[in-house]
Amino acid sequence: MPVPYLHGLLLSSLIMRYNSRKTAFCGLTGALCAAMLMMGGLFPFATYACPAAAACLLLPVAYEYKQKTAFVLYFAVSLLALFIVADKELVFMFIFIFGPYTAAKFSFDRIKPAPLRLTLKIAFFNAAVIFSYGILLFVFPIQILVQEFDSYGLPFVAVMLVMFNAVFLLYDKAVEKLLIIYVIRFRKMFFKK
């Protein structure tokens, strides 16, 4: 047997092993994301907490296998959530706000200088919130949500948007810290040399 053949066989074996590990890791992460989104219907406060937590599960995928893989997983979980999760507001929070932001976080964090980065993050978040609630209120109106917003009035909605921005900034910092914790403490459990 010639040596180049062995080299090619070894290389293809390593590629298959990498792809198997990637498929398994992404499959388990996607299942955990979907389960987290389904749990959101159990508690009233979970409408915002569960999509944020599910989106945090995309971080290891983006770190290990690049953002492209994280976006593919995000699209798969989003499509699955549209069909299996009853609370559509929760699903839209994941699809339009937390999911894409978390999958694209590394791209946002590469933007220099810092004030521009922060401005773009907040602009993305506000556009995503307005877009998602616009769809929920006007394109696919959910009666309970429409009545809720009608009873609040515009000043309360503006205050709510300001509070959402504050929570988003906390979420952004929490995601940074979670990534550090993943790399230092948990990564070695999944990826041994």
Give the helices and strands, then pairings.
Layout: H1 3-39, H2 46-56, H3 58-84, H4 88-103, H5 105-109, H6 114-139, H7 143-152, H8 154-190
Helix pairs in contact: 1-2, 1-3, 2-4, 3-4, 4-6, 6-8
> Tally of extended strands?
0
- Number of spatially distinct domains: 1
Query: Termini separation (Å)?
Result: 29 Å
Describe the global form: globular
**So, CATH architecture?**
Orthogonal Bundle
Give the overall average pLDDT: 89
Q: Low-confidence runs (pLDDT<50, min 5 residues)?
A: none
Put simply, the count of helices is 8
Q: Main beta sheet, described?
A: none
In short:
With 193 residues, this protein is mostly helical. The protein has helices spanning 3-39, 46-56, 58-84, 88-103, 105-109, 114-139, 143-152, 154-190.
